[in-house]
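Dear support,

I submitted the protein below through the web form. The confirmation email said the job was done, but the results page showed an empty box. After a refresh the structure appeared. I'm attaching both so you can tell me whether what I see now is the final result or a partial one.
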Amino acid sequence: MMEPIKSLGISSLYCFRGFPSSFKLNKSLVATQLEASLDSGSPTPSTTTLPEILHTQLLTKLDIPETKMALGAANIIRESPHKAENDNFVHENRSKPHFHLSDSRFGGPFFEEGMEVKNTTARVGSTINLNCRVGLLGDKTVTWTQRRNQNINLLTVGRNTHSKDERFNLVFRYPNNYRLHISYVTTRDDGIYECQVATHPPKIKRIYLKITAPELKIVDESMRELQERHYRQGSSLLLTCLATNLGLSDKEKPENNVVTWKYGAKILNKNSRLNVTAATDSASSILTIPSLEEKHSGNYTCAVGNLADKSVVVHVLKGELPAAVQASGIQFKTLELTVLLIVAILLYSTG
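What the results page shows now:
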């Protein structure tokens, strides 16, 4: 049921039996009609203020003696008697106008974790989740994009995945988390990811994703990095694989096969020695073949699981090595001898 509050002379103001927790009156309507009511001869003490008159008559008419009424310049707000005393809407002096200044975020969509750039790291082969929690989204749309090498890739739109790469998926988490899920991370996934809300101008949350992976190189006896190597038939092969950034920790026991050698597609188990140092997150593996034959020619690969690999091409030749190969070997040995000679002369002169 609704009935007009006639004692106030306000025909357009109605109250409900199930009175809501708060309501607002139009400022100009209250002021105009209340002044007309007072001018018509309503007895009012000269010392009583306009807010006090409205407050008293509302309490009497609505029969809610235990209800607090806070009269503002533009609002009349009904508050529960259990409301905390320091609530922004409750004031001891009801005759003073008050204004409640809402948080600026309440004006539209906002990122719950702020708009600062976030840095995160993922391991090659792992799974990573990038969260984007948006408050007060309304009817706006959230998109994910990736920026890499001046290229922009659209990944998701709303709750739908747009990328053709099946490793990327939008996994929505109630109530407002537009989570980007990336599985089987590769080094190509390194870059800046942007969660964007379609406001004007757009609101953007940036996350820099850094991908870490093992680093490998194959060296010879003189620690020169190799891509190709020539041997004479009957000579010995010795190749060393140096692996760093393996993702090991001091507490976990390194795997026995953290670094493996392959000849073509065949895994070589008997011809290698592995040395792992968890403290430096590194390992070295030495491959040896005592007496080479022509059948040993081919690709030799050092690998860390499916995360990284490095290959060298080995040529086993009969007789003497080609002149170009011999010349390069002679030049290197000559350089070594020259350096040793210079060091010896310096030591002798200082002694």
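Response: this is the final, complete result; the empty box was a page-load delay. Residues 1-31, 42-48, 64-104, 326-336 have pLDDT under 50 and may be disordered.
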